[in-house]
Design goal:
By secondary structure, the chain is an alpha+beta fold. The chain has helices spanning 3-6, 9-17, 84-109; strands at 23-24, 31-32, 39-40, 42-44, 49-50, 68-73, 76-81.
């Protein structure tokens, strides 16, 4: 059972509705990432969770797998790391994008005549 399942409805709503704005603690203060439990200095004030945004390159046995995705940037395909911050906010970003696309389609279909 996750901590979120035990949280109040208000907390669950805050986390599920957050679309994220990462902030790096300065001076550097580390918290434990809410997803992978690694130390991170990145914090999301919207859902009030520490979440990894960057990954240090480690020598030796590193059992954390890369989660990669591709995106077209200025006509060129680029590959990026999907970190815990991205994974935690991805569903909300997709909901926002779907709502924007639906609104654009609705606006394109509505022609207002004077």
């Amino acid at each position: 059972m996750s901590l979120l399942e035990n949280a109040t409805a208000e907390i669950q709503n805050m986390i599920s509705q957050c679309h994220g704005m990462p902030m790096k603690a300065y001076p550097i203060v580390n918290g434990k990432c809410a997803k992978c439990k690694q130390n991170t200095s990145w914090y999301c004030p919207g859902c009030k969770r520490w979440l990894c945004v960057e990954r240090r390159a480690l020598q030796g046995n590193n059992n954390r797998k890369f989660d990669l995705y591709s995106h077209n940037v200025r006509g060129k395909e680029r590959t990026f790391l999907k970190m815990c911050f991205h994974k935690a906010h991805e569903s909300q970003w997709q909901s926002i994008r779907a709502a924007e696309e639906a609104a654009a389609e609705e606006a394109a279909g509505c022609i207002v005549t004077p």
